[in-house]
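From the pipeline queue, job 12 of 40. The input is one protein chain; the requested action is below.

Action: predict structure.
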Amino acid sequence: MKRHAIQITCCTLLAAAALSAQTAPPDGEAAVLAAEAAISQAKIHNDVATLGRLVADDYLGYNQWGVRRDKKDFLTLFRTFETTGLVPSRVSVRVSGDVAIVDGIMNESNAWKFFFLRTYVKRDGRWQLLSSVQTFPVNPENMTPFDPALLPQ
């Protein structure tokens, strides 16, 4: 009887550890997601000082309209650009050494939904945004837009 109880306890502990490993993001992923959230908040509050620290000096991005921006242009935009919310969904993070890729769907101020793909680099012990690409989802057969939230998961 004791042996059976020990086996059940061991199996329970192993199952809990496996579940915890599946649901808790590794430290690298958590740190990248924290940088991602900090950038969103800085954009909403036009906090260019914070963006200046979180965006790499060699940043390059394209927005959903195809506008190309380096760091200087990015910071200039967010001095005055008004957005009331940035709500990500279906976010995925892949970390490989000092590089991380983040992708998902962004709902901007409840007005626009677009796909995003961002690259972060870890420099001097902190994650910085190196590049960002955003795109409106379109049906390639007829080039009509669609809501990315309707895609199957």
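Job complete. The chain has one domain: 27-150.
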